[in-house]
Amino acid sequence: MEIDDARSLAHALQRLVHEAYNLIDESRPVPVLVSRVTGHLACELRNAVCVTQSFRNWELASLHQGVDAYLAARGGADWFGVSGQGREHNDIIDILTTAGRGFEQYDIGAVDYATVSVGPDETMEVVSFGLALTTAPDGAPIAIGLRGPAEEYGKEGCRVEVIATSRESATAAREEIERLMRLNDALRGQILTFGVSEHRGNSLVTFLPRPSLGPAEVILPEGVLETVERHVAGIGEHAEALLARGQHLKRGLLLHGPPGTGKTHTVRYLMGRMPGVTVLVMAGTAMRFISEAAALARRLQPAIVVVEDVDLVAHDRRFSDEGSPLLFTLFDAMDGIGADADVTFVLTTNRAEVLEEALANRPGRVDLAVEVPRPDARCRLALLRLYGAGPLPEADLEPLVARTDGMTASFFKELLRRAVLVSLREGSAGETPSAAHLAAALEEMLRGHEALTRSLLGAPRPALSYTHETNGADGL
User: Fold this and answer.
1) Helix (H/G/I), strand (E/B), else coil: 239
2) C-alpha triplet 96, 102, 108: angle, nearest 5°
3) Any idea of the CA torsion for 168, 173, 175, 178, to the nearest 10 degrees?
4) 9 CB contacts (<8 Å, ≥6 apart)?
5) What is the C-alpha separation between 275 and 210, in angstroms, rounded?
6) What is the average pLDDT across 113-124?
7) What is the pLDDT of residue 368?
């Protein structure tokens, strides 16, 4: 009997505490922060629903512009923030819930803003923590919460939270915000690369300036540049007509040849030739983001994905037991973009002979391979003109052209720089180095102790010679 009495007493005390809590909870004033949201929704917080969508850190500017466009279409709305300790750790709906129960001292506060990059030399102010009261596409009242990354508190990525009285209203608003976000994407038409960024608010994406090169600045054999342009830019210019005739748009271009011959220079020309196209440059450590780059290219098309030194990740599996771990990631990225996407993969390599055969055995991976060879005499003369020897008569340049057989564009660029240094050391007043200055610089670069320099600039490696000396009949 004593046990039953104790159990009954415990249940009675439990009911008493629960009823006391309810009385206190009902008598406690609703925090201003909560009442502002629930007053707009015309319902208690426990009857509201929240739909959340998360995005990568570097999409905060685009998300902000999408929310701004959404609010503007509905007459605008004033942002307000949240004050209180620990707000950085929690989602907005959790903050409202705990504040309503009196567990945390949250209140209306200032909106948090952040400065993020939206171009090589351009930034913008965006909301990194704030709420706005507006309506859903169906007219129902909603609250929109926008949160930026808070990596120091373990909160990566940015997100939008839509609070409404029904899931349908919240989902419709979230979908419209995302549509407007893509329409106003801050990354569209930019040149981007991945890695650690010096720009605030962009932990993965770096904006690069768009080069400005004319066709006269790209010294290639006759017809090569035109072929490349037709494949990359020409297909895009006729995209609608090609699709109407059942042709695919996605294409792959491989530029191969010795180092220093102008492959990257040609890519830079293409970047400037197509100003409205989004370009994603993948090189070095950025290659681990190839999947993200392909997804961005699909979303921001027309787009170009540049994979520099592709042989580092796409070497033929015959040359190793396992191949590169990024090889299949690259294949998946190239194959995952639909044939109807106006996306070009531009690959460069100094070692075409070691490339994985599977790169070229499927249309849409590589359907045009162009060699960028060492410059012939005509191109060597053009390179001398391009890099600063323009006013000199051709007769003065002919000896230089003859002595630089096999040298690359990088070699000529360095040659002209050294010629200018020679002229400066001699106190020459002219802006253009003379033929004598060029000859002196060339002598310097052709000396034996600069063999490695020439090799680094793309000059042919000298053939190694071996001697075999014998000592006695057995050669020992």
Assistant:
1) helix
2) 45
3) -160
4) none
5) 8
6) 91
7) 87
Distance CA 149, CA 155 (A): 6
Tell me how far CA of residue 48 lies from CA of 91, 176, 438, in angstroms.
15, 20, 78
Task: Please enumerate in sequence order all residues whose Cβ is within 8 A of that of 214, keeping only pairs 6 or more positions apart, or say none.
Answer: none
CA distance 221 to 175: 51
Place of tokens 């044939």: 339
Q: What is the pLDDT of residues 371-413, one digit of tens each?
A: 999 999 999 899 988 888 778 888 888 988 999 898 888 888 8
- Which tokens go with 311? 């042989």
pTM of the model: 0.80
Q: Report the candidate in 277, 272, 357, 345 with the shortest Cα–Cα distance to residue 308.
A: 345
Q: Please tell me whether residue 150 adopts helix, strand or coil conformation.
A: strand
Inter-helix orientation angle 409-425/377-384, to 10°? 40
User: Is residue 161 within 8 Å of 144, Cβ to Cβ?
Assistant: yes
Where along the chain do its domains lie?
A: 25-183, 210-371, 377-456
pLDDT at 22 over 80: no
Phi-psi region of 84 (alpha: psi -120 to 50; beta: other; left: phi over 0): left
**In angstroms, how far is CA 396 from the centroid of its own chain?**
46
The tens digit of pLDDT for each residue in 135-168 reads 999 999 999 999 988 766 556 789 999 999 999 9
**pLDDT of amino acid 454:** 67
What is the assigned CATH class of domain 377-456?
A: mainly alpha
Query: What whole-number distance in Å separates Cα of residue 454 and Cα of residue 464?
Result: 16
Which stretches does DSSP call E strand in 141-282?
141-147, 158-164, 191-194, 205-208, 251-256, 278-282
| Distance from C-alpha of 77 to C-alpha of 68, rounded to nearest angstrom | 9
* Burial class of 72 by CB neighbour count within 10 A (0 to 12, 13 to 18, 19+): exposed
Q: pLDDT tens for residues 316-372?
A: 555 555 556 677 777 878 777 888 889 998 989 887 777 767 666 665 678 888 999
* 391 φ/ψ angles, rounded to the nearest 5 degrees: -70, -15
Taking 90 as the threshold, does the pLDDT of residue 246 lie above it? no
Amino acid code (one letter) for 30? V
Mean pLDDT over 31-46 rounds to: 88
Q: Does domain 210-371 have CATH number 2.40.50.100?
A: no
| Cα-Cα-Cα-Cα dihedral sign, residues 424, 428, 432, 435 | negative
Q: How far apart are the first and last CA of the chain?
A: 108
